[in-house]
Amino acid sequence: MDIKLKNIKENKSLLNHILLIIAIFIIFSFAVNNGNKVILNKSYQMFGNHAYLTSSDYGYKLDEIHAYLNNALYREYQEVHDGDPKADLQKTVASMSPKLRGELKANVIGSYGPEVSYFIMDNNTDIVYSNSGAKSDSEFEKEYNKDGYTFINTRSNVTTTYVNGKKELLNVSYNLTNNFDMYDDNNSYLQTKVLPPTVLLAVNHDFTAGGYFKDSYDVYKSDAVWSTIGFVFSSFLLLYLLIIIKKKYGIRETLDVIGQIFNKVFLEIKLFMAYFIYGNFSSINGTIAAILFIFCLYCAAMYDNENLLNVSLYKKVMEIYKSNQVFKPFSKKVQSRMVNGITRCVVSGGILMLAFLLIAMGISGPYEQLYALIIVVSFIYLLYSIFRLYSSSIKSVKDIEDVYNYTETLGLGHFNENIYLSDNSYFKEIEYNLNALNEHIKEAVEEQVKSEKMKSELVTNVSHDLKTPLTSIINYVDLMKREDIKPEIAKEYLEILDSKSQKLKKLVEDIFDISKATSGNIELHNTNINLKSLINQSISEFSDSINENDLEVRVNVDDDVYVYADGERLGRVLENLIQNSVKYSLKGTRIYIDLEKDGPSITIINISNYEMDFTSDEILTRFARADKARDLEGFGLGLSIVQSFTGLMGIDFSVTIDKDLFKARLDFKNNK
Q1: Cβ contact 199:93 at 8 Å
Q2: Judging by DSSP bridges, how do beta strands 652-658 and 601-607 pair with one another?
Q3: Category of 306 on φ-ψ map: left (φ > 0), alpha (ψ -120 to 50) or beta
Q4: What superfamily does domain 522-667 belong to in CATH?
Q5: What's the confidence (pLDDT) of residue 632?
Q6: In whole angstroms, what is the distance from residue 621 CA to residue 490 CA?
Q7: Which of 1, 24, 269, 554 has the greatest number of beta carbons closer than 10 A?
Q8: Could you write out the DSSP letters of every residue in 147-212?
Q9: How far is 596 from 599, CA to CA, in rounded Å?
Q10: Nearest C-alpha neighbor of 71 from the set 196, 188, 192
């Protein structure tokens, strides 16, 4: 099923299917998000505080304190250097140590609570900063690296974390220099002039009520409960919806629906989604988006990989633009396409120069990488536009040459081949017009040849049909002139002359009727005609011929059926058709006449007594005879008269030939 907006609105089942897919995507995202929280924060160990002590939330809190203690010393050196670049850093910082020591104690207790203890050794001045009674780092470690504490030990840029005396891997910066932007041009001197400090940090697990870690611990326990419940609930709901969608719609059909919908998304939107996912891939939401994006790509590729990248906003705009071009003069269309090619080159070149200018002026700021990407894309597109403009110019010259050669061929009278230009040719309309002209010329030539052939056959047939009775009349008149004829013989000759004269009269009348019907010069007298009565009346007129040929007429007629038509002409039509069937039916067979009320319509079927090696079009030609030897009576005008009269009355007449089966049908659905 091709999914369109109209289909979605009108098909409730399809709408419910799509809504169910959207619900599954949302619940999947919810389940993965909560599952990630459960795993990272070890919510499955929510009872007791051990899970919290190894959770990512606790690690983030430790990292914040760790970074603050480390950066405090680095920032002292930075302030001294910024105030006087020539000052003795170590000596000046050492003189400021009492002030720093007081600030550290006040900030740590005020911001993080009394459960936090620290020991910082400035390896440049050997000055210690601590809020504990430990005299050395080894004494501090001995006092706090035990059960009931989290202990962080950083020496020479190597950080190790212990929880309850056991080594744990937590989210704490392992390289102290990462906590301070030492790679900034203004701070790079710190790498060579300042040794990293030794930082020891201890946190008592008896968190103070209302303190920094207590609040975090309470939030963690609440989140752990809700994230676990959310994960379990969403997982069961996701499983339930998958079972429903499998039973009601089928997995394969669901994948096809996802593939169709995703294939209808513009390529530009897909690229933007991919760029957004790439920029946020490190986050859990970015990861979920990446999983769903790749899944939708897979469904789209499985459904129709050829159109995966074909639906584009650019193409849509160009289609609208081209549709508007249809009503423009040909010269305007060609001019517009050429201007578009030049415009692409100018615009891409302008964007390229602007991006270069912004970088050269140093105002790119945080968008330098974006500008670099724009430069690369614009340069590639500029090369593409130049190549396309060049190739289209070369192709246009070749197309003009092809058009010239083709018109030359037409001028020489060769109409057997068409001209074919590429789909994106500027001169595609000329191709259509020339091919249409060629077809019209060929049809006109064929019609002319056919007309000449028909004229020749008409002259031959009319000559034959006129000559035969005229010869008889002339011969019998000559006999009556030259012989002393007895009365009884003269009477016989007169009867023959009368028969031949009537035959000539009938031929002239038939030709006259066809001529008037073709020109529309017949006045119709339409009335309500009972087809059932008219069929029975026509059959009765040929009862003798039917018996002579040992034929059986099977009439399948419903109740009385009325049509509004000219009774005389319609009767002539039925008489000619029935006479034709009687004359050319195989002896001992049946003729079927069916009158259907719906329409209504009349069908006459018979089996031919000769091989019908002609088409339905050929038998409808004037003076065409089924017996080409012309042994049977008639002029070959019967079906032609039927065709002329039915066309005049708005009745559809058709002939079908299937081997020896001949079928004539009158359809009154267009008759008024």
Answers
A1: no
A2: unpaired
A3: alpha
A4: Histidine kinase-like ATPase, C-terminal domain (3.30.565.10)
A5: 41
A6: 40
A7: 24
A8: TTEEEEEEETTEEEEEETTEEE--S--SSGGGGTTTTSTTTTTHHHH-PPPEEEEEEESSPPTTSH
A9: 7
A10: 196
